[in-house]
Amino acid sequence: GAVVSQHPSRVICKSGTSVKIECRSLDFQATTMFWYRQFPKQSLMLMATSNEGSKATYEQGVEKDKFLINHASLTLSTLTVTSAHPEDSSFYICSALNTGELFFGEGSRLTVL
Amino acid sequence: GENVEQHPSTLSVQEGDSAVIKCTYSDSASNYFPWYKQELGKRPQLIIDIRSNVGEKKDQRIAVTLNKTAKHFSLHITETQPEDSAVYFCAASRGGGSYIPTFGRGTSLIVHP
């Protein structure tokens, strides 16, 4: 199946700093990628839909200035958590569609101290 | 928008028993229903899916049923094994170009040896 790679898998940062997470489709082109946030023992909450070459579509309640998404190429989308705070600590997962099936990245665990 | 309810949140079975996870959805236009398995600390992976033109689909020990009239679908795992232990998510979407899956809250399946 298709491969989606996410980096970094773990990141620890100080409060107030910004963190960038990359999501790459390794063997296919992804016009659309999705970014999810997952709290412990909870479901995948869609944050935004990333569209190549255009602005991301954010879900209600997600601050677009807080979670910057850039989809500059057909194989790369990035999520930048700006001015991170402890409440932003979570598991972030990206995914991309290929031939109708959704493939997920490995996920990135963000811990903000 | 779509709303997906999933039950139970936790399911504990003995090895060899069957496990059933149920989901309901609200959007009558949804026509694609995938199921994902997420092992601890790993990415969700598609295990089986069903489209609205089919009532049942089976793949070895896993089967999914769909009742479009009642707007519910279920995952059935027979002869459970300890390696089946994971969190299972159902999802519903309209498919095609407007494919944005909505996930259920997840079911933590524990198979005791």
Condensed summary:
The complex is a heterodimer of chains A (113) and B (113). With 113 residues, chain A is mainly β.
Please give a handful of descriptors for the protein shown.
heterodimer; A: 113 residues; mainly beta; 4-stranded antiparallel sheet; B: 113 residues; 6-stranded mixed sheet; 5-stranded antiparallel sheet; 11 strands; globular
Describe the structure.
The complex is a heterodimer of chains A (about 110) and B (about 110). Chain A is mainly β and about 110 residues long. Chain A is about 0% helix and about 55% strand. In chain A, a hairpin with a 2-residue loop joins strand 7 and strand 8 (about 75-80). Chain A is globular. Chain B is an all-beta fold and about 110 residues long. In chain B, about 0% of the residues lie in helices and about 55% in strands. Chain B has no helices and eleven strands. Chain B has strands spanning about 5, 10-15, 20-25, 30-40, 45-50, 55-60, 60-65, 70-75, 85-90, 100-105, 105-110. Chain B is globular, with a radius of gyration of 13 Å. Classes of the chains: A mainly beta (about 110), B mainly beta (about 110).
